[in-house]
Amino acid sequence: MAFSFSTTVQGPSGPLSVVFGEGTPEQHLACCEVIVASYAPSFPASAIAEQEEYLSQHPLTLNQNTRFWCISLNDDTKSVLALCKTIRRRFLVKDSESMREESGYCISTVATHPQYRRLGLATLLIEQVAKWLDGPGDAAASMLYTSVGDFYVRSGWQMIPSIISNITNIPDDLQSGDRAGLPSTRLLANEEIPALCERDVADLKANFKKTTVGPDEVHVAVIPSAEMISWLFEWGDFLNTKLRGGESPYVHGAMCEAADTWIYWHYGFKHLAISRVRTPPDAGEGSPEVLASLLLNALEEARNWKYPKVIVWEPSAELIAAMDLISKTAGVEVETVARPNSITSLRWKNSDETKKTTLHLNEVYASC
To answer: Which segments constitute the N-acetyltransferase domain (predicted)?
Structure first.
């Protein structure tokens, strides 16, 4: 049985009979038009539709692992008023009872058509999606990233304080002297990344096994699998091809083999994002010198594509020290602040807030 809900809301010119439900193929382009109106007015809706079709073949999204949820007019379902997406993900969870993998979702692209804002449609949308998550969706947990966290708190999502580093003023030509005294690194080939992800996941599980958890605590991480990591690669590669005329395959990371440390990155609309920073489990948060050398690889990639900024979510103290190091040697500017948008929010099934949550690996790879 389809999960749906009908109601009446007060519209700009009188009552509107609306219906909530999972998006149909006939609503696909209308959904993309709302996305464009909300997030990328200069980007054609047909390109967004093409991107969604491209991503629909990714392992993370196959077999209804990605779903559109829409509010539309009851008598004209092609008129989409509001929408969001849910994208499947796997969580590693540890509480006082056990360590286990759980299934859940990330909510993304919450958007309301400009003509129908301030009518309570976003509230209705999120309330119904939460019911689906708790019921047929069978989601142990769900996450979203937002600049209006207070709005989602009402429906059970807990805001998790987060920081971001912005690296700007990237020089047109990074000099060889910028790497003086730093460990050598190399770019990663795309075919190397799945095996590295397997090692990363194994490290995470080993770390969780050693973590002591109190009776009122729960630790959780989005598992950094190849499916999770590569989804943003594919998302960004499509954008880079459409907006910048690039040709795949693109470079997505770099490695310092001597230190067994690597980073991944992906391309965005206006910046290059460090998706994940992996350091060996017995090396703490890693060497600032190693991390600085790897960040220089990312800066060179950003410069090659004329991105004005590189962003890093939730940098460790060592990563902040590495950015300070390259700011002195390469002349870049670094600012680390509380995240003003894309604030991580997490909701347990049925809005359960009985345990204190600790989120691990709060990095860009886990966003959608």
So the answer is: 18-173
Report long-range pairs for 317-322 (Cβ below 8 Å, ≥24 apart): 317/285, 318/279, 318/284, 318/285, 318/286, 318/287, 318/288, 318/291, 319/165, 319/277, 319/285, 319/286, 319/288, 319/291, 320/165, 321/288, 321/291, 322/288, 322/289, 322/290, 322/291, 322/292, 322/295
Using CA atoms, how far apart are residues 180 and 330, in angstroms rounded to an integer? Answer: 11
At residue 1, the pLDDT reads 43
Structure tokens at 85: 């997406």
CA distance 81 to 137: 23
- Cβ atoms of 167 and 311 closer than 8 Å: yes
Kindly report the CATH number that applies to the domain delimited by 4-88+106-138: 3.40.630.30
Mean pLDDT in order along the chain per 10 residues (368 residues): 83 90 92 89 85 91 91 90 96 97 96 93 95 96 89 91 95 74 95 98 96 96 97 92 80 97 94 96 82 96 94 96 94 95 94 94 94
CATH domain 163-338 topology: Aminopeptidase (3.40.630)
